[in-house]
Automatic annotation (TrEMBL):
<protein>
    <recommendedName>
        <fullName>Homoserine dehydrogenase</fullName>
        <ecNumber>1.1.1.3</ecNumber>
    </recommendedName>
</protein>
<feature type="binding site">
    <location>
        <begin position="10"/>
        <end position="15"/>
    </location>
    <ligand>
        <name>NADP(+)</name>
    </ligand>
</feature>
<comment type="pathway">
    <text>Amino-acid biosynthesis; L-methionine biosynthesis via de novo pathway; L-homoserine from L-aspartate: step 3/3.</text>
</comment>
<keyword id="KW-0028">Amino-acid biosynthesis</keyword>
<dbReference type="InterPro" id="IPR005106">
    <property type="entry name" value="Asp/hSer_DH_NAD-bd"/>
</dbReference>
<keyword id="KW-0486">Methionine biosynthesis</keyword>
<dbReference type="InterPro" id="IPR001342">
    <property type="entry name" value="HDH_cat"/>
</dbReference>
<comment type="similarity">
    <text>Belongs to the homoserine dehydrogenase family.</text>
</comment>
<feature type="binding site">
    <location>
        <position position="189"/>
    </location>
    <ligand>
        <name>L-homoserine</name>
    </ligand>
</feature>
<feature type="domain" description="Aspartate/homoserine dehydrogenase NAD-binding">
    <location>
        <begin position="10"/>
        <end position="127"/>
    </location>
</feature>
<keyword id="KW-0521">NADP</keyword>
<dbReference type="GO" id="GO:0009086">
    <property type="term" value="P:methionine biosynthetic process"/>
</dbReference>
<dbReference type="InterPro" id="IPR022697">
    <property type="entry name" value="HDH_short"/>
</dbReference>
<dbReference type="InterPro" id="IPR036291">
    <property type="entry name" value="NAD(P)-bd_dom_sf"/>
</dbReference>
<keyword id="KW-0560">Oxidoreductase</keyword>
<dbReference type="GO" id="GO:0004412">
    <property type="term" value="F:homoserine dehydrogenase activity"/>
</dbReference>
<dbReference type="Pfam" id="PF00742">
    <property type="entry name" value="Homoserine_dh"/>
</dbReference>
């Protein structure tokens, strides 16, 4: 059977979930692609940490070792932060590898550049996992954009903030208590500022802006607010009026101007994001022909993110298989 060689960059929560998911779904992948997916290498940061990896997997702290894997075809990237992810993916593209990333900070800043380079080297990029975990928003929008004009998006793009607001309302608990619970459950990092101050949702919104409009607004002109200043009193007062605080990212185009914002907003029962609870993400798309479309699903966790990355991988190779059939 044909073998597709892949490598993983990063073996944290997402990387390990991806490794396990590829192995557990090997049969489905083989049936779909007509090829075995072989994880040939894993780039790690800490060589002393014990990991459950097959003996035939190259485990290294040196990215050049990954690039030198013979017949490497795909690089999955699940490293936190902008650097050195961008450098690694640039080199992987130049090596002729398709790349699939979950790195929202890096892709918000360098996505357009990487996409241009990918076209130059005739490789593909999958970035579904950068925006809403297991929710297929990128592919949905890309499909709509063939004819429809997307006029506006409102979205809950950070599962941690949504979880905190939900728990504060349901259990009448203060922000600090629920944040600690989110950290204990693995929904929030030790430093949760990206999530609770709105930056995570902002980066995701900028990725959507590139997809929708081919450009981003000036980052300094986008109003970004988090949820850390919302008190339990405010949440319970709203609840008594049958209203709920939601952390909403919104983007639309007014003439040539892109208008974007991220911040808490009060919603009532008529709002399409009113019933989105817990760690779920949701995106409401207003399109010129299709009207209003809403999609919802888990936005946090290793397996939803791994799912998005594997679906990107399958999509890329199905397209290649179809292209080969036509030649």
């Amino acid at each position: 059977m044909t073998v597709i060689k892949v490598a993983l960059l990063g073996f944290g929560t997402v990387g390990e979930g991806l490794y396990e998911s590829i192995n557990s779904h090997q049969q489905q992948l083989q049936a779909l692609l007509g090829a075995e997916v072989h994880i040939a290498g894993v780039l790690i940061q800490d060589s002393e940490k014990q990991r459950r990896l097959a003996e035939d997997v190259l485990v290294t702290t040196n990215f050049n070792d990954i690039l030198n894997i013979p017949d490497l075809q795909v690089v999955f990237e699940a490293i936190v932060g902008e650097d050195p992810s961008y450098e690694y993916l640039s080199k992987a593209i130049e090596r002729g590898c398709d790349i699939i990333t979950a790195n929202k900070v890096m892709f918000a800043k360098h996505g357009e550049e990487l996409l241009r380079k990918a076209r130059e080297y005739n490789v593909s990029i999958g970035y579904e996992a950068t925006v809403a975990g297991g929710v297929p928003v990128i592919r949905t929008i890309a499909q709509l954009l063939q004819v429809n004009r997307v006029e506006k998006i409102q979205a809950i793009l950070n599962g941690t903030s949504n979880f905190i607001l939900t728990e504060m309302r349901k259990n009448e608990l203060p922000f600090e208590t629920v944040l600690k619970s989110a950290q204990d459950l693995g929904y929030a990092e030790a430093d949760p500022s990206n999530d609770v101050e709105g930056f995570d949702a902002f980066y995701k919104l900028m990725i959507l802006s590139n997809l929708l409009f081919g450009k981003q607004p000036d980052w300094h002109e986008v109003k970004v607010e988090g949820i850390s200043e919302i008190s339990n009193h405010q949440i319970q007062s709203a609840h008594q009026k049958n209203e709920r605080y939601k952390h909403i990212a919104e983007i639309k185009k007014d003439g040539d101007q892109i208008i974007a914002s991220v911040g808490p907003a009060l919603t009532n029962e008529d709002h399409p994001l009113y019933n989105i609870e817990g760690v779920d993400n949701a995106i409401v798309i207003k399109a010129s022909l299709a009207g209003t479309i809403a999609i919802q699903g888990p936005g946090a966790g290793s397996y939803p993110t791994a799912s998005a990355m594997i679906e990107d991988f399958a999509h890329i190779f199905q397209n290649k298989k179809a292209a080969y059939a036509l030649t």
